[in-house]
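I have been asked to look over a protein record a colleague put together. This is what I was given:
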Amino acid sequence: MDNNNIIVTNSNEAKLDSPPQIEKNGEKIISLTDFFPKIKVYSVYFKQGIPGALPDCYLRKGIAKRLQQAASLLPVDLHLVVLDGWRSYEVQLSLYKETEKNIAEKNPAISQEELSLQVQRFVALPSQDINKPANHLTGGTVDLTIANKDGWLDMGTDFDEFIDQAGTHWFAKNSQGTDKDEEIIKNRTLLLECMEKADFNNDPEEWWHYNYGNPVWASDTGKKACYKGVLNL
């Protein structure tokens, strides 16, 4: 299969052989630093030293406004922390290769075909085709969490911890009734509800991952996609 005809986003998001038609939308991609008081930036991949990662996080202007709406719905003592937004091809390629290396090292007998499938469960296939972009390349995907003055709220797993428990509703379905489980459920539900009220849609396999206006969002909602890929800021 021609890889350029595949859209693979993090985790179990759909592979789209025929992506939804993308409407022309020239919204600029803007910095989130100082955009809104209840939105903070922590550029995870820059902190991790991923090649090509930038110290700031960026989104389409319209997406940033929707994120402002979501942040405004939080209690006064809480704010959003953006971990990643627009992602360059270079960063996407770096993450893909690193994930491929990690999986291969843990499974030395794995075939190349199975390796590719396993990698694409977690990291979108890098593509420089702006009409068939990985989600983050559009500026219409954001990875985020919630924090208070003391730090990030407990969401049950780390960001980019690709295990079953990272699924948005895993704890709700598997709760042991402990105070910790209930706190995790409360925190994830708060993030989900404020983001959905701003018309984002969540990847159910990743509590941190939200889309608006990109091809997978269009496929999930039945609406037209707005955003093509953007290779460079």
